[in-house]
## 1
Amino acid sequence: DIKNCLQVESYTRTIGIQEPLMISRIKNSIDLIMHSGIEYEFRKTVVPGFHNSGRIEDLAKDIKGAKRYVLQHFVQSAEMLNPYLKDVKPFCEEEMLEMKRRAEPFVQNCKLR
């Protein structure tokens, strides 16, 4: 599960912490996974306010050549830890399909879940 594109500002805003070495560690982990020889998929739960088509495309570029990239619909719940998320409306199907379309050129298989 990769939280956002691998730009420091976007990633740290999404996870809520600042860690200078985080992006290089994540990139290293992606490389290890992609070259491990085992089955894998990279997932991204797409949350309005944190993600948009451009960021999804940027993340697809960050994992270019990946076997599978799954864009998951955000599911709103009263039990969200972040109070902001309790009022967030998920992206509609058309918006999700547009994000998938923008990611597809960079990965072998892109799916919506």
## 2
Amino acid sequence: MRAGSPRRAFVLVATTLGVVYLASLAPSVTLWDAGEFASAIESLGIPHPPGTPLFILVGRAWRLLLDLLPTAVATNLLAAACTAVAGGLAAILVTRWTRDLPAAFAAGLGFGSSATVWLNATETEVYSASLLMSVLMLY
């Protein structure tokens, strides 16, 4: 085992995943719920039940910070940021458990590059924020 810094693991994984997600980010509205969520964030409205009010409020604040970008791009970036941070936090956890930086890097990248996670990281979906909240609870 090689000793590694949890902070270094976080930065390496979150940055790598962030770059990958940015390169594959949906350029506009995608199918299913993404358009509904983007519209609800833009209008501060209520999407389908249960409404995900916390996600809409966080998304609205994010949208106002990135006012120069189109709504769909800004909200897609929110999903990418949430998932990249979740992957970085997963790497911190693995570093703490194993004290092995390469293992934490591999675990964080594996976590963030699985098909379901990646797809939800590149479009406006509540699952990215939900994943971040779940990893934060483990942290």
## 3
Amino acid sequence: MAFHDGLGQRLTTQEPGGGQIDLLRLRADLASVPSFEFALRERVNRLASFRHPSFALVRRVERQGAEAVVTVVSEHADGVRLADLLDEAERRHLPPDLSATLCLIRQLVPSVAILHEAARDVAHGAIAPERLVVTAQARLIVTDYALGSALEQLLYARDRYWTDLRVPLPRAAGLARFDQGADVLQVGVVALSLLLGRRLKDAEHGAALADLVTSARAVAGGREL
């Protein structure tokens, strides 16, 4: 089954030599920005030697099909998208599970730190429930870690990054930056989603996050993440 989010369509398929791979077929309007594909390929090449079991290895960028769709090819992350788990919890009116939240956040934080240690100016840039996979063993796998510098080339307003791509960014003067500080905010938004038991809505960003933090504190009951 294909998974869609603001970045494009994700498919799992078989490689000719065997084994499964995940394909992220990027939206045409994103890839049509001239510097987007260049920045994406540069970041994938730069992180070619990055390996960690908490990350789905990005193998390459290629153009596929008659329409030459820009596609990111990664190792298959075997599990369920956190976005799907949150949507199911909301649909079934399940209360947030604090133990599960703590388990996942305590995996996500050190994983992001390891990516940051790979290079001082490298950041994921698009951490969100749509780009996190939970395995049957409750391991958290981070996907799409090479997109940050490409997304920065879009030059969207911060509100549009959120509503179109589900990418929250810090409020600051000037153009939006996809740096390590953005990753910290994005980890916090993932934690909020877990504590609330659902994905955040279009209007729940920026100043509206303060009210959500208050709600999340009530759920956490004073326990530290």
